[in-house]
TrEMBL record:
Stated name of the protein: Uncharacterized protein
Compositional bias annotation for Polar residues: 1-10
Gene3D superfamilies: 1.10.287.1490
Region (Disordered): 1-54
Native source species: Methanolobus chelungpuianus
Ranges of compositional bias, category Basic and acidic residues: 31-42
Keywords annotated in UniProt: Coiled coil
Length: 602
């Protein structure tokens, strides 16, 4: 029974006592029977009417004072008990308010953590957007797609491995629980075995005693004595039957315990066999997980090797493109020089034929002209040999060029295929970016809902403060009510009932606050999960950014190589200019020789 119900019952009892108690009037005359008038008349003649009235009044006053004192003490005791109940209620309310303030502080800290996490999330979102924009601008789509496929495959294998590890841990926990149950059953079985052995020893001792008693009784019967076995009202036959019934009941109980022990032993053996089977299955699962983990390790190394090979292929492809461009430029230059040299060779051959005809017709030419002609012939022969060597080298270069053209066409086909795959991966990446924006919108909506819940919690806090002030005012009313006990009984009862209802309301509010805290905790866990996913995505984009930096380094190397190619082109242009100067000198010499011939003819 609670203190409040006890106080209510006390109030009702006090009301009943106040309504039933007799409050005598000290000023009324006592009732006198007509039969006793004569006797009282005689006594009045002896003592007098004044003395009798005073004695009766004193007795009634003493009884009334005793009743009033007892009733006052009972009411005072009841009020003290009610005061203790009110003090307990106040202390409980103060403790509940302290708990509420602590919870409010925890809520404030959670709000601060949430704001910090939101700032971090916004910062990470900006970093992620910038990284995504840079990656979209610089990284080829084919490389992104291949990396995403490999990453998704690796994450899939990792998720499968984690799932298997969870299953392994769950089976291990079940195995440990069953092992503890087996140990408890084994301990119970050992205790039952010890108890059984003790009972067996007791039974054997009793059996020996009964055998001794039976032997002594048989000896007494053989001697002709009638024994009573120390049992009152029983002769020998009934005592033997009683002993036999006890013996058979104990034997039956012992057999039952033996059967229970055998069944427990069988159950224990069955559980041990099941545990052995489960341990073997767990070992197999563990071996499978280890093999899967060992299988995933080379896959990661293969993934890294494939990425390195892809980078190497890209570098080789770019180098081949550069070399092909150099070869094409060189081929163009060689072809131009070859055509020019061929024209010069044809001109020189024509000139040589003309000069040979002129030499055959004019054998009597001057020695100087002949010497010059011989020198020119030697020069022409040397140039023709050089031209032949250049023609052979050019033919070799054409064969190499055809081979390089085939390789370039194959690499160009591979590059186009990789470019198509990269475009597909970029489209997938755009879809993931849109999903990330949707998640961010969901986070914003959750933030708005959390702010609304915060406002509702503040409103509830203000309501609780108002109720606290109301309770304080009610406490002041209770203090004033102590001075007016008789007149404020009904108000005290109503106030206690209102305090009880408010206490229930406070408990409801506390339950609502706890549910709100649990919801905030669940949402905080969701935010942490989202933060983990964003951090993972940021890690992937950071790797992409690093790859972008590597690509930029390769681009700088390519630029350096292009500068080197430009320097080579400058050297080639200088060589071409020198060749032009040489051809102009040759033309001048030809003109001089022609003038010399004309002079000789003249």
């Amino acid at each position: 029974m609670s203190s409040l119900s006890w106080s209510k019952n006390g109030k009702q009892a006090a009301k009943g006592r106040t309504s039933q108690d007799f409050t005598p009037n000290i000023y009324r005359k006592p009732a006198i029977n007509e039969d006793d008038k004569d006797k009282k008349g005689d006594s009045q003649n002896v003592d007098g009417p004044g003395i009798y009235n005073q004695r009766t009044i004193v007795k009634t006053l003493e009884t009334d004072l005793g009743q009033l004192q007892e009733r006052y003490e009972a009411q005072l005791k009841e009020y003290r008990e009610k005061e203790a109940v009110l003090a307990d209620v106040k202390a409980r309310y103060d403790s509940q308010m302290e708990e509420y303030e602590e919870k409010q502080k925890q809520l404030d800290t959670l709000k601060e953590d949430l704001s910090r996490q939101e700032e971090l999330l916004n910062r990470k979102c900006t970093i992620l957007k910038s990284a995504v924009q840079k990656a979209e601008d610089t990284i080829p789509t084919e490389q992104i797609r291949e990396l995403e496929e490999k990453r998704s495959e690796f994450e899939k294998n990792k998720a499968e491995l984690e799932q298997r590890l969870e299953e392994f841990e769950r089976t291990q926990q079940e195995y440990e629980q069953q092992f503890t149950l087996l140990e408890s059953n084994r301990s119970e079985l050992s205790g039952m075995r010890a108890q059984y052995e003790e009972e067996l020893q007791d039974y054997l001792g009793r059996k020996k005693e009964l055998e001794k008693k039976a032997h002594s009784l048989e000896e007494q019967l053989a001697a002709g004595n009638d024994a009573s076995l120390g049992i009152e009202g029983l002769n020998y036959g009934t005592a033997i039957d009683l002993v036999k019934s006890k013996y058979y009941s104990e034997l039956k109980e012992l057999n039952r315990k033996k059967a229970d022990l055998a069944t427990l032993r069988e159950e224990l053996e069955n559980e041990e066999s099941l545990l052995n089977a489960k341990s073997s299955s767990i070992a197999e699962i563990k071996a499978q997980i280890e093999s899967e983990f060992n299988r995933l390790i080379p896959q990661t190394s293969e993934l890294e090797a494939a990425m390195a090979a892809y980078d190497e292929k890209v570098r080789i492809h770019e180098e081949r493109e550069q070399r092909l461009s150099q070869l094409t430029r060189k081929y163009d230059l060689d072809y131009a020089t070859f055509t020019q040299n061929r024209q010069e060779l044809e001109e020189l051959l024509d000139r040589q034929a003309k000069e040979e005809l002129d030499l055959e017709e004019r054998k009597i030419a001057a020695s100087e002209s002949r010497r010059q002609l011989e020198l020119e012939i030697e020069e022409i022969n040397s140039r023709s040999a050089e031209f032949r060597e250049k023609v052979a080298a050019f033919e070799r270069n054409t064969e190499l060029y055809q081979h390089d053209i085939l390789e370039y066409e194959e690499n160009l086909r591979i590059y186009t295929e990789n470019n198509n795959l990269l475009q597909e991966s970029l489209s997938v990446y755009g879809e993931e970016l849109r999903s990330f924006e949707e998640r961010r919108a969901e986070l914003e909506s959750q933030k708005i809902s959390l702010s609304g819940e915060e406002e509702s919690l503040l409103q509830r806090k203000s309501d609780i403060d108002d109720r606290r002030r109301e309770l304080e005012s009610e406490e002041s009313m209770i203090v004033s009510w102590r001075a007016e006990v008789e007149s404020e009984k009904a108000s005290l009862k109503s106030e206690l009932e209102s305090i009880k209802t408010k206490r229930e309301g406070n408990s409801k509010l506390e339950s609502e606050l706890e549910s709100g805290f649990s919801e905030l905790e669940s949402r905080r866990r969701e935010l942490e999960a989202l933060l983990e996913t964003t951090e993972k995505e940021i890690g992937t984009h950071i790797t992409l950014h690093r790859q972008n930096l590597d690509i930029r380094k390769v681009n700088t190397k390519l630029e350096q190589q292009s500068v080197y190619i430009k320097s080579l082109e400058k050297s080639i242009s200088e060589m071409q200019r020198a060749l032009d100067e040489a051809t102009s000198d040759a033309r001048k010499h030809e003109m001089f020789s022609h003038i010399l011939k004309m002079n000789m003819e003249i």
